[in-house]
Amino acid sequence: MITNQELEKFSPFELLAHQVVEGFITGLHKSPFHGFSVEFAEHRLYNTGESTRHIDWKLYGKTDKLFIKRYEEETNLRCYIVIDCSRSMHFEQKLDFACKAAACLVHIITQQRDAVGLTFFSDHIELQTELKSTVSHQKFLYQSLENFANGGNVGDGNPVGANPRVRPPQQTIPQLLHELAEQIHKRSLVIIFSDMFDDFSQTEILFSALQHLKFKQNDVILFHTTAKNKELDFDYSNRPHRFIDLESQAELKINPIDVKEAYIQAIQQFQRELKFRCQQYRVDYVNADVDEGYYPILRAFLERRRK
């Protein structure tokens, strides 16, 4: 899906929280809380010049190599990456775009020693991982992203703790975002990749779900993932086409020129309203056109965020 060389392009970047988050202090993020208990996470090789305070001397005696003990207390921030993998996201490689961009964010976040987890949702939660900063967890997230980008999933595709024999009831995007808002630890960084295509007659319910995430004092970023040429500009040739709704599989045979003006007015109105509500709720809105590619969009976002 994405190479190590592509990931390394983002090594110079940091992803900082724009508001106070509930985590731990190691220099990058401000924390309103102190005194958390520590939990051992993993070993890593000792680098020359580092403090010897956390060297595991017992392991040195067995291996004759210096290893540092890493603890979960080193985590500054809890970051949830939420990816819409519904059928509409398979149009024009939108899901592939989201997974590649998310892989780069995982790389950045874990190199900061921050805890990160993934959630995939369609009409139910397909996968929900724990939040960790370990190397093994990072590899699992990469594998999960690659599997979903290729059209599959991980394991049985059920949420953590779900009964694999019972398929969860179908839910809308607003319902799922409300559910996630209740599950997510408050004062976290929440990054959402979605085209936000749902029932356009229920936009107020959709916007209330974004507001719910902010109400829980989270720092929310929305990558509004669309294929501008086809979905926003409705750029199709002037001849009859057969359109298939990827969600419902309903079919419609029309000449695009007959509905283009009305369609563009409706989609532009929705996009303006979405941008306005994000600004109102202080959600960081990113217009993510997949035709531009993940690298320039993500780089521009990170540079703007740093400023």
Compact summary:
The chain has about 300 residues and is α/β, with parallel strands linked by helices. The chain is built from 9 helices and 10 strands.
Secondary structure layout plus pairing:
Elements: H1 4-8, E1 40-45, H2 57-63, E2 67-71, E3 78-84, H3 94-111, E4 115-121, E5 125-128, H4 135-149, H5 173-183, E6 189-194, H6 203-215, E7 219-226, H7 228-232, E8 241-244, E9 251-254, H8 256-281, E10 284-289, H9 294-306
Parallel strand pairs: 3-4, 3-6, 6-7, 7-10
Antiparallel strand pairs: 1-2, 4-5, 8-9
Write down the overall geometry.
elongated
Helix content: 25-40%
What proportion of the residues form beta strands (DSSP E)? 15-25%
CATH architecture of the largest domain: 3-Layer(aba) Sandwich
Tell me the number of helical segments per DSSP (H or I, 4 or more residues long). Answer: 9
**Strand elements, count:** 10
How many structurally independent domains?
A: 2
* Main sheet characteristics: 6 strands, mixed
User: What name is given to the CATH topology of the largest domain?
Assistant: Rossmann fold
Q: Mean pLDDT across all residues, rounded?
A: 84
Q: What's the helix-strand series?
A: HEHEEHEEHHEHEHEEHEH
Distance between the termini: 30 Å
Give the low-pLDDT segments. Answer: 22-28, 30-37, 154-166
Structural notes for this entry:
The protein is an alpha/beta fold. It folds into two domains: 40-74, no CATH class; 78-306, Rossmann fold (3-Layer(aba) Sandwich), CATH 3.40.50. It has nine helices and ten strands. The strands form three sheets. It has a six-stranded mixed beta sheet, sandwiched between helices. The longest helix is centred in the C-terminal third of the chain and has 26 residues, at 256-281. The protein starts with a helix and ends with a helix. Mean pLDDT is 84; it is low at 22-28, 30-37 and 154-166.
